[in-house]
Amino acid sequence: MASRIRKVTLERTPCQGPCPVYRVTVFGSGDVRYFGEAHVARTGAHRWKISGRRLERLAEACERARYSRLEDRYTDREFAGAPGCLTSVEYEDGGSKSVEHYHGDPSAPDALTELEDELDRILGVERY
Hints:
Blueprint: E1 5-13, E2 21-27, E3 31-38, E4 44-49, H1 52-64, E5 73-74, E6 84-91, E7 96-102, H2 110-123
Parallel strand pairs: 5-7
Antiparallel strand pairs: 1-2, 1-6, 2-3, 3-4, 6-7
């Protein structure tokens, strides 16, 4: 069984165009902190709470994507102007993992993009 998650952060970075730019962090308590910067429905700081079941889904999504086994960086700029996404997971046992993902890097696994999108869905970011 994987170690319990203490904190997950997802940050969407700018692109050449109207890509959403924001940072969202969820803690093991279910508390979510969001800061919208550009091309989002709500800019600024917002907070809410998610259920224990959603936290479980979040941990399951990380395991399905084999997040701990991904490379730390997928930053080849083969396609210019694409957005990026930075993710990080901190575990209760003190371990952590971060991945820098430029969406123009063809070597990045589909599972990483799917995980990023699933984290947004689980956390309810679409409202913001």
